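Project standup — Tuesday

K.O.: blocked on the structure for the chain from last sprint. Re-posting the sequence here as requested.
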Amino acid sequence: MRSLIVLMLMMLPQWAFADEWKVKSVSGDLYPVDIVEEDRAIAQNGLPDGLIAKTIGGGDILSAWYEAPTTRYGHGILGDAIEAGRLAVEKTNGEIVRFDLDPQTVFEDRYPRLKDLDGDGKIEIVTIKASLSQGAGVTIYGLENGAIVERATTGYHGRANRWLNIAGIANFTGGEGQQVAFVRTPHIGGHLYFYSYDNGKFEEIDKISGFSNHVIGSREMRLSAIADMDGNGFVDVALPSNERSVLRMIGFQEGKLVEIDRVKIPSRINKAIASRGGGEDLMFIVGTSDGKVFEITRDY
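H.V.: unblocked you, prediction finished:
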């Protein structure tokens, strides 16, 4: 039995033996002001500060963005109370097609997210759509016969002025396809959800509580990072706790959602979180509300 245990321990990745994480204050000059540089282009004639999402490799969609700015939803969670009433998509042949929402809904978002969630070679468009009376939900669109159609949705929160922020889209479970992770109500006891999409079905896999990946009124939506944090070969997500003073690392192990680790930060995270390297060299960079920057690395 002892030899078996020793063998199992030898098979663990080296970084599994790190006792804790080290938080080091560094000069902000080492990193951009917002920690993660924004490389998406501004959507001309779209939302103020709206961005163009582009597909990386293959699929039936080249890019997507939001248009038709509207003030019909006075929530203003992203700072300006201007949301979008239209989704625009550029197809691989260069043709642009558009989808207009009804007057009771908006895209409460800065940019769509483009992923082939189920591996069928067609791109899904992941959006944050909000009802004026029922709050926000994740809604997925795609192309069908050359037109934009709604494929699936989580449904709305159920109350007006209740929002969510997407934390990442990746293969978190190690199974088929990619999953969508998002924090519902990140300003009032946020719950981190993981949803899978397959053949038009968008279903909850699991959830865990106690997160905030957004600051009220901020245009920055990238308070999260994905990386393999436990060495099991597929990615996990790191994002702030409710009060944004703890970086929590969440992932799936043997099919179950677990907290892999957590790191106390001296002040509140309010910048886009970066991850660098991997394995024993994995590092997170966070910026905080008092203007400081911290590198978070494994401590051996």
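K.O.: great, moving the ticket to review. The CA atoms of residues 83 and 108 lie 5 Å apart. Helices lie at 2-11.
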